[in-house]
Amino acid sequence: MSPGVRKLYKPALLLLAVAFFFGVSVTQSYLNQTRKEMDLTRLAPLEDAPPVLAFTTQALGGFRGLIANALWMRLTTLQQEGRFFEIVQLADWITKLQPFQEAIWVHHAWNMSYNISVKFEKPEARWRWVQRGIELLRDQGLKYNPQETLIYRELAWHFQHKLGDNLDNAHWHYKRQWANKMKPFLDDEGYPKYDALLSPEGEDQKKLAQKLKEEYKLQPKEMREVDKTYGPFDWRLPEAHAIYWAMLGLEDAKEENRIRLRRVIYQSMQRAFQRGRWIEVAGTDRFDLGPNLEIVGKVNKAYENMMEQQPERRDHIAIGHKNFLKNAAYLLYTHNRLKEAAKWFADLKESYPDEISEGKSLSRFVVDRATELYGGTNRDQIIGAIQGLLSRSFYSLAVGEYERSSGYELLARKVHKRYQGEIGEIESAKQRVGLKPFKTIKKEVLARILNSETPRFNSVMKQRLRTELELPEDWSGAGPSQPSEESSSAPERSTGTGG
């Protein structure tokens, strides 16, 4: 290399490096703008982020993906080896490396709540993992992705399905644990203490309102809007919370994503209608669930709105709507709310005339449905159906569900009367396949309940039955004293129609 060329060599390399840096700068600006338009990344710096998260998202740059891939591989190995507690730390690191990837939050929450939780036998251990899944989505995922429909939907699904459904053997434990967490914020009926939460007075109320907002991320104003629009709900139960998070997600959801949240809302409303009331069982730590009949009109409206908003899926949604109307007529009847039952039965016939045969009455419809649910058409199945309905009637009476108690007994009488009427007056048929008098069957069912040892009817509940039915302490079913055939299992009282 000649001396002249040697002199120009380094300046030329410097100019070339400058040209490359300029080219990279222009290209990077273009790439950043394109990625922003395609919503592939977040260019704005994090606000109020922990120092470690700020560092990983800004300082590591492109190396974040490589480190995250290594952690994913390690996490898979640990899960195969059953080393679940180490997975928590790895999941935390991965979400810190990729905080804006909503699918990552959803995956780790699902993994904890559904995959890892079921590896444990004890409900207490399962609940800890389910709770971690909820907290990961609610406390962290939504903090950095406040407009991501997928995270709202997954959080709502945790409440609707994992806590609300009965597919997990520990679902009763989940419901009890969540109810205990909500108890300080609710009255005895499970409704939020809106006066204290919205306008707290005194230090105790202020701390309570602050805890609701900071620990559970629940805003009283939004809760009241949920009750106003879709409820009222018993907030001890998970369906109310599923609707709450789905409704929040709708505020910023794109139109193509809104269907997923709307579906959570109307499915949760239907379940709340069927089992949306909390019923404490006297003398035990158990509880039962009853229907929330007060929201029947709003559930119906939700179905009608869904069919209007999604005309391409109208036929599919109509199947659910039809089944809801059948349930509404049946449940209202079994709660002795006959006028309301007649109203929704009429709506069923008007909306789906092919479902109800010409001339079928509400009473006949309900008896047919009860026979379908509890028994069949032969004598043994009918006896089982009547006994089951009476057992439910006495159980409802023992836990203070007077409307339901009266309704179940009324239905048992209808099933008995219909079967005897179908046999006719032929004496030989009555002797061969006829039923005992209803009065006798009722006495036998009550005697079996009072004389047997079963966790379903504990001593406190048995005493309540004796008190409500005005039976002597030593009544066992053998003597002449017995519940009146003419009166309902429940004493006469004003229960209202529930509007």
Descriptive report:
A hairpin with a 6-residue loop joins β1 and β2 (287-290). The protein has a domain at 311-490. By secondary structure, the protein is mainly alpha-helical. Helices cover 68% and strands 2% of the residues. Strands 1-2 form a two-stranded antiparallel ribbon. α5 runs parallel beside α7 (149-163) and α18 packs antiparallel against α19.
Structure class: mainly alpha
Average pLDDT taken over every residue: 82
Percentage of residues assigned to helices: 55-70%
Globular, elongated, flat, extended or rod-shaped: what is the shape? Answer: elongated
Strand content: under 5%
Number of helices: 22
Assembly of the depicted chains = single chain
Order of helices and strands: HHHHHHHHHHHHHEEHHHHHHHHH
Total strands: the figure is 2
Largest sheet: 2 strands, antiparallel
Largest beta sheet: strand ordering: 1-2
Low-confidence stretches: 42-49, 484-499
> Radius of gyration in whole Å, from Cα?
31 Å
What distance lies between the first and last C-alpha atoms, to the nearest angstrom?
101 Å
Provide a brief overview of the structure.
This protein has a domain at 311-490. It has 22 helices and two strands.
